[in-house]
Design a protein that fits this description.
Layout lengths: L13 H27 L17 H14 L2 H14 L4 H14 L6 H21 L4 H16 L5 H21 L4 H13 L3 H14 L7 H14 L3 H14 L4 H15 L5 H24 L6 H12 L3 H14 L4 H13 L3 H13 L3 H10 L29 H13 L3 H15 L3 H15 L23
Length: 480
């Protein structure tokens, strides 16, 4: 048999192979010992550990935010977009979307201070958006919305209001240059026009945009909402409702749209109509507010706004007891809200329940401590309070006094009237001076103050004590 040369061993090769194998083993063992010590010392991280921060992408948070927005949960939508921009701070589109939601959510803030702060947040977001991308037409379009709504929230500072309107108008011009055919820009520009009292121009532009916008356009809700706002501003309440309902079709969970629908039905009920038609309009108004409340309930949101709206509707209808009952529900949600105390005081005063009116109006105008508001919440039967159980009487919060402005002037002059009716004339005079110092040129305010001063001086008889407040079933004390 022939054996090939390459299969014939010459010499002892196994000893050389074993030496190389041993060297490799020594290196591996030594490297392992060194690596283990470095891991123990923290200089090397083990494989497959979870990352210290979330790796969820910004667009994932943005999609979640859009889902929350579609569901009507604007607060969680804002939180999701804030997470998105924190991960991707250079995305102008994300900042613009955040600003849009912040602006719409300002409509649902329970106090003037919180509304102003939310709009300030929106301005910061949209200014960041246009700074990042000066060529983004959508960002400039949303900037129109942000600054126009900011101007409406500053009615007592005419200089600031004009500055905001000027920014809105400048944004409209820039957006039109970037996208001349944008229906969103056309509509939002009309909203600026209505605030500038250019009614004809506003209607022309808003109606044209609403007629052309497609139902599946992502900004269909905005365009129909604007047209509804323009119509409402011109007193066309029926047509405004129709446009708001079209906006609802695009975004069926926007509670602020239902609030606008309810307000317009309430205004129609206050116009010269038959008693039967008036009742029907009131019912539709209440249905719209109830729809807003149910959306909040589905989202787990405690919002006093729909209850306040229902209270105003019943107050307009002269149903003081039911009006008060709904405002008490709002107060149970937000017991530190001076605006709710003020509105409740107006209801009590108009029901001629002056004693209860004085207590809550004092809290609204002068402020009150947590202990004082706790006692007041028990007095007006917001909660079941047992003197033997201190925990049942400790649900109050500190209430900061309302500043005197156009949003609170009715609360102030109602407090002034309640003090005069109760012959608490020193306190009444203090409020009279404040009212005359700020609104002395307003004939309604001046007339009320003069009448109250005449009551205190004895020239006019004091108002008689009103009827006793009907018994109200208190709400159960909240857990904790």
């Amino acid at each position: 048999m022939r054996i090939p040369a390459d299969q014939m061993p010459f010499g002892d090769s196994s000893r050389k192979s074993n030496m190389w194998r041993m060297a490799v083993y020594v290196l591996l063992i030594g490297g392992g010992v060194i690596l283990t010590r470095m891991v123990e010392a923290g200089r090397v991280k083990p494989l497959f550990l979870p990352t210290p921060t979330s790796t969820r992408p910004a667009q994932s948070y943005a999609e979640l935010g859009r889902t929350y927005f579609a569901a009507g949960n604007l607060e969680d939508a804002i939180g999701s977009f804030q997470a998105a921009v924190s991960l991707n701070p250079d995305d102008s589109g994300l900042w613009a979307e955040l600003a849009r939601i912040q602006t719409y959510s300002s409509e649902l803030q329970p106090t003037f201070e919180k509304r102003s702060q939310r709009l300030a947040d929106a301005r910061a977001s949209i200014d960041k958006a246009v700074e990042l991308n000066p060529e983004d037409a959508i960002a400039y379009a949303i900037r129109i919305l942000v600054y126009d709504w900011s101007s409406a929230a500053a009615p007592d500072d005419q200089s600031l209001r004009q500055d905001y309107l000027s920014e809105a108008e400048t944004s409209a011009q820039q957006a039109s240059l970037l996208d001349p055919g944008s229906l969103l820009v056309q509509a939002l520009s009309a909203e600026v026009s209505i605030d500038q009292q250019k009614f004809s121009q506003a209607i022309d532009n808003a109606s044209a945009a609403a007629e052309q916008i497609s139902g599946d356009d992502p900004y269909s809700m905005d365009v129909h909402r604007v047209y509804g706002t323009v119509l409402e501003g011109n007193g066309y309440y029926n047509q405004a409702i129709s446009e708001y309902e079209k906006a609802v079709q695009a975004n069926p969970n926007m509670t602020f749209l239902y609030l606008r629908i309810g307000v317009n039905y309430r205004r129609l009920a206050g116009s010269p109509v038959s008693q039967a038609e008036r009742g029907s309009l009131i019912d539709r108004s209440l249905e719209a507010f109830d729809r807003a409340a149910r959306i909040n309930e589905q989202n787990g949101i405690e919002d006093p706004t729909p209850y306040m709206a229902v209270g105003r509707t019943y107050l307009q209808d002269g149903e003081f007891f039911i009006a008060a009952r709904n405002v008490l529900s709002a107060l149970a949600i937000d017991p530190g809200n001076a605006e709710i105390y003020g509105f409740l005081g107006i209801i009590y005063y108009k029901a001629r329940n002056y004693e209860s009116a004085l207590g809550v109006l004092k809290c609204a105008v002068d402020g009150c401590t947590a202990e004082e508001s706790s006692a007041l919440l028990c007095d007006v039967k917001v909660y079941l309070c047992d003197p033997e159980d201190p925990a049942s009487m400790a649900h109050g919060e500190e209430v900061r006094s309302l500043p005197l402005n156009s949003a609170s002037v009715e609360v102030y002059y109602t407090y002034n009237s309640a003090l005069a009716a109760g012959k608490e004339c020193d306190r009444a005079d203090r409020i009279s001076q404040a009212l005359m110092g700020t609104y002395g040129q307003d004939p309604i305010v001046r007339g009320i103050v003069e009448e109250n001063r005449a009551i205190c001086s004895g020239v006019l008889p004091s108002l008689s004590a009103g009827p006793t407040e009907p018994a109200i079933t208190p709400l159960p004390s909240p857990p904790g």
